[in-house]
Amino acid sequence: MKSTDAEYGALVERARRGDGRAFEQLAVREERALYRHAARILGAGADAEDAVQDAFLSAWRSIGSFEGSSFRAWLYRIVTNRALDRVRARRRRPELPLEPAEDEVVTWAEPVAPGPDLADLVGNREAVAAVEEALRLVPEEQRAALLLRDVEGFAYEEIAVITSVEVGTVKSRIHRARVAVRNALVTRGWRGSGG
Amino acid sequence: MNDRPHPRAQLSAYLDDALAPSERSVVEAHLGACADCRARLAELRATAMLIRALPEPRPSRRLVPHIAAAPAWLAPLRTLSTFASGVSVFLFLATALVSSMSGSAASAPAAAPAGGAATVASGAPGAFGPIGPAADQSARNRSSAAPAVGAAAPTATSLADAAKQAGATPSPSAQTQFSAASASVQAREGAPAAAQPAQPSRSIFVSPWFWLAVAVITGALAIALQRRLRSA
Hints:
The structure holds 2 protein chains of 2 kinds.
Chain A: H1 2-16, H2 20-42, H3 46-61, H4 71-91, H5 125-137, H6 140-150, H7 156-163, H8 167-186
Helix pairs in contact in A: 1-2, 2-3, 2-4, 3-4, 4-7, 5-8, 6-8, 7-8
Chain B: H1 11-15, H2 21-33, H3 35-52, H4 74-106, H5 115-122, H6 133-145, H7 156-166, H8 172-188, H9 200-203, H10 208-231
Helix pairs in contact in B: 2-3, 4-6, 4-10, 5-6, 6-8, 7-8
């Protein structure tokens, strides 16, 4: 793994100096993960593909301005912004936030009846559909934060940089989004264990 | 049950290990005493796990742009081949015109490859074929058709100068025109058969078909390079 990291760093340095081949190699490495991220914000399809492609072109054009420590986080920042822009454009009311204010109280749904344990549902087709449906209903900025955490594995501080907000906002968004998905599952009768 | 408020808003951050140590110990102490919060934490953990385990969507096409596809020399080469194609078209027209005119003047087969130069060489005294005026005229036609050489110049050296001025890089065509014109000069001055007969390797440069082929090849190259550049 260490040599891979060193190799990655060398590629970033070459790309930063204008080596298009190095940039392509980096982009190929991140292509699928970035598409996955865009597709979960925008829905799978041409829109998400275009968002990633645009993001790569934009990243290449501004590679000289990249000075941060994490090239991967930098790419995610560009892709996340593109994807969120497209969601807002699609809604055609970009100035009206559908998202509830950050200080609104988070409501926890109560389980309707005892059912299977949530932890046993990985791979369950119905659970997958329920999670995807629940995620779709989460406001996109919360959704992006949650995906950056749970799927892409970024730390809160990194997510704050990627989405250009305070760490406190990241914390709130992730929590709201996760509780919303949890509520969708719990109201179907699935429960958590531990108590 | 614990009489302190439930730290529910902290549970996700606790799960993600994103709490300050002091906050963390408060949550830990509460979890130890509150089954309800433990259950909610477990639900959040399972939810995060389910989200991570979602099937991965795949793109239907390559999303990485072709950036490395265009090396720095590609654009100049495209320009050069476009230019070369244009010059070749001109030379094709020029040589076609000359060979058709020389063909009618010297009764030689029109547009026969290498025919023009052969006519010039045969114009020298002592050689077989039509003599004097006809060959001279055909050579003059050639001179007027080639701006690089200019109007029939009296000496070979001034022709060479003209050829040098016409193009920064002396192209094979200019040299050929030069040799053809100098042959005509020698013919007019009545020099004995000192004029070297045009060699086949040189005479190909006065063939219109040669220039047509060059024009097509360089044109195709220019188009291919342009496509390559645009896809980048």
